[in-house]
Specification:
The chain is of the alpha/beta class. The protein has helices spanning 30-35, 48-58, 74-87, 118-125, 130-141, 159-172, 196-206; strands at residues 3-9, 14-19, 62-67, 90-95, 108-112, 145-152, 178-182, 213-217, 227-230. It has 7 helices and 9 strands; from the N terminus they run ββααβαββααβαβαββ.
Length: 236
């Protein structure tokens, strides 16, 4: 697997497993901003047993799997159940929804839906969104905890796209929580950051369809109080 970082939040008794790389190639992805100068040949990745050994030191109540979505591999497919059996924790998965691991052992999934229009999705991620929307329905049908989110990008992913995504989600279950996230500027791209009022107005449009809407301005990650159990020290 391409897990390159494991963090621990003592206050929340939670750990996060970070993948690098992704089966999407989103032009606006801020993870590219973080890792653009580092070649993957210089990164040491952890295998499942190494991850479980690190988690065993702190025995978290929750483990979150996030960042890049890897291509299909046996370790990734079996990871949630191994976490459940070895650590006995709540397992959350944050994903683009294109490829899912074995959902046995997963307690909650958050799917980041990039665009409703498939041609737009292909143009800016390199992949069709059809598996993502299909997998959202599949997760819901299995009774697994589910939420969704989208990034509002003025000039690219506009309010109409967010509204259409919300309408699709509502067609499955209008109680599914949905977060609208304001785009965070990535250098070299022409897209601007929206102001908080813009993000709120777009979220209100999504709220015409869904009952549980929240919005936030993307401002990077807050690592206050976070302990690295393993890292390649790639961040500045």
């Amino acid at each position: 697997m391409n897990i390159h970082r494991v963090t621990y939040n003592p206050d929340k008794k939670s750990c996060t497993l970070y993948f690098i790389g992704c089966n999407f190639n989103c032009v606006w992805c801020y993870w590219k901003e973080i890792y653009r100068l580092e070649g993957r040949r210089n990164i040491r990745f952890l295998n499942t047993e190494e991850v479980l050994a690190l988690l065993g030191r702190v025995m978290p109540e929750r483990v979150n799997i996030l960042s890049g979505d890897p291509d299909e591999n046996e370790e990734f497919m079996r990871l949630p159940m191994k976490l459940k059996k070895s650590v006995g924790c709540h397992v959350g998965l944050s994903t683009n929804g294109y490829l899912l691991p074995d959902l046995d052992g997963v307690d909650h999934v958050n799917i980041s839906l990039k665009a409703f229009d498939d041609s737009l999705h292909v143009r800016y991620t390199g992949r069709s969104n059809k598996p993502c929307f299909s997998n959202l329905r599949h997760i819901h049908n299995k009774g697994i905890g589910l939420s969704a989110s989208s990034v509002y990008i003025p000039g690219l992913i506009e309010g109409d796209e967010i509204e259409r995504i919300a309408g699709f989600i509502a067609g499955i279950d209008d109680n599914i929580p949905y977060r609208v996230i304001g785009y965070m500027k990535v250098s070299g791209l022409p897209f601007r950051e929206p102001d908080p009022g813009e993000v709120e107005r777009v979220s209100l449009r999504a709220g015409r369809y869904l009952k549980n809407i929240v919005f936030s301005r993307s401002s990077g990650e807050d690592y206050t109080g976070i302990i690295d159990l393993f890292t390649n020290y790639l961040r500045k």
